[in-house]
Amino acid sequence: MENPLSPHLQIYRLQITSVMSILHRVSGVVTSLGSIILVTWLLALGLGEEALNFINSIFFSFLGRAVLIGFTLAVCFNVLNDIRHLFWDYGYGFSLNAVKISGWLIIISSISLTVLIWLFAYEVI
User: Fold this and answer.
1) How far apart are CA 90 and CA 83, in angstroms?
2) Domain-by-domain residue ranges, the chain?
3) Region 24-119: CATH code
4) Sign of the CA dihedral 23, 28, 31, 33?
5) Helices 49-59, 62-89: inter-axial angle, 10-degree rounding
6) 3-state SS of the chain: helix, strand, coil percent to 5?
7) pLDDT tens, residue by residue, 78-121
């Protein structure tokens, strides 16, 4: 019988540090791909009203809106987590308790900031 992999996947519990690391990488990729969306919109803006209306019709669809909200969330998370990394570069926030608190604070703040941005975009606030 073979020995299990270490750490064994059936008993391993994800920690906030590993989740934040994975999310930071994913949000970086999403932000990079989202910049293609931004460049496409800017190109349509320069090409004229017909191209802009076509791109906006895609962005205002349900799927397009979901992609834009996901892009906003990825940018907010990536920026806030980068700020946390800057504090780490200066030697602050390395205790286990500080890492856990700042991790959860980044997740909650990025979701809250995304909601605020979209509420502001719809002129709700």
Assistant:
1) 11
2) 24-119
3) 1.20.1300.10
4) negative
5) 80
6) 80, 0, 20
7) 999 999 999 999 999 999 999 999 999 999 999 999 999 999 99
